[in-house]
Design a protein that fits this description.
This protein is of the alpha+beta class. The chain is 28% helix and 33% strand. The strands form three sheets. A five-stranded antiparallel beta sheet has the order 7-11-10-9-8, covered by helices on one side. A four-stranded antiparallel beta sheet has the order 1-2-6-5, covered by helices on one side.
Length: 217
C-alpha cells in the first residue's frame, strides 16, 4: 500500500505513515539506499527488520525526496544527514511513521494494540495518572498513555528519563482522536507538552512537537 497519509501540520512540519504491504525488492526500489545504508540493510538477519528499515527510507523519500538520508547518534537517535529538519521515527507491526519539522523538536510513537498491556501498566503509569475503568476503552486509553510517554521520551533525547517517574500525562477522557497534555520533569528538563493522538485500525498513534531547550543548552 505504501504511504497512507502525508499530512502537513503547518508550513514547517509534516507527518507521514506507511503501511508495509510490499516485498523486499519493491521497497528496495523505493528506498534509494546509499552504500552505507546498503551495508546496514545486509547486516539484518530477519526479513521483518529489513522491511522496517526499507519502509522508513521509502516513506522519507515520499515525504521530502530521495536525497534525504538518516544518520544516528550514540544513543541511536535519528537525525537527517543534512541537518535540515528534526525527525522522529516509529514502527510497529505493519505501520511505519515519520514526523519532520524544520523549526521544532519532534516525537512520535505508534503501537499495534495487543491485549496484554493491562498486565504491564504498572511499569509506566504513575499515581498522578488516571485510566478509565470502562473495559471497552481501557486498552486504548493505556496505549495512548504509553505512546504519549514514548513520544515525549524521544523529543527529550531519551537520556536520564524514567517513563514512569519523570513523565506524567494529565488526566483526559479518551476519544477516537484528541489532544492531551504531558509533563516531563528531570534535573535537566521541566516542560509541558501538547500531544495529539488518533487511532488507525488497531494502532494507537501519538505525536508532539515543540520549540524548547533543556536547562544545559
Amino acid at each position: 500500500m505504501g504511504c497512507i497519509t502525508k499530512h502537513y501540520l503547518n508550513e514547517f512540519s509534516i507527518l507521514g505513515v506507511w503501511k508495509i504491504e510490499e516485498d523486499l525488492n519493491t521497497l528496495l526500489d523505493l528506498a534509494s539506499l546509499d552504500n552505507d545504508e546498503k551495508k546496514k540493510y545486509k547486516s539484518f538477519s530477519s526479513n521483518s527488520r529489513k522491511l522496517e528499515f526499507l519502509s522508513v527510507r521509502a516513506l522519507l523519500a515520499e515525504l521530502i525526496g530521495r536525497d534525504a538520508k538518516i544518520v544516528y547518534n550514540k544513543n541511536n537517535k535519528p537525525f537527517l544527514k543534512d541537518g535540515s529538519r528534526f525527525i522522529s521515527i516509529s514502527h510497529s507491526h505493519k505501520l511505519t511513521s515519520i514526523l519532520l519539522s524544520t523549526n521544532e523538536k519532534v516525537g512520535i510513537d505508534l503501537e499495534y494494540m495487543s491485549s496484554n498491556i493491562t498486565a504491564i501498566a504498572f511499569k509506566f503509569i504513575n499515581r498522578k495518572e488516571k485510566v478509565t475503568k470502562e473495559q471497552e476503552d481501557r486498552r486504548y486509553h493505556l496505549y495512548i498513555h504509553w505512546c504519549a510517554k514514548e513520544a515525549l521520551y524521544k523529543i527529550c533525547d531519551k537520556e536520564g528519563i524514567s517513563i514512569r517517574n519523570n513523565i506524567t500525562i494529565n488526566p483526559f477522557v479518551v476519544m477516537e482522536s484528541g489532544e492531551i497534555t504531558g509533563h516531563v520533569h528531570t534535573n535537566k528538563i521541566n516542560e509541558s507538552f501538547e500531544l495529539f493522538y488518533s487511532k488507525y485500525d488497531n494502532y494507537a498513534i501519538v505525536w508532539t512537537k515543540k520549540n524548547w531547550k533543556t536547562q544545559q543548552e
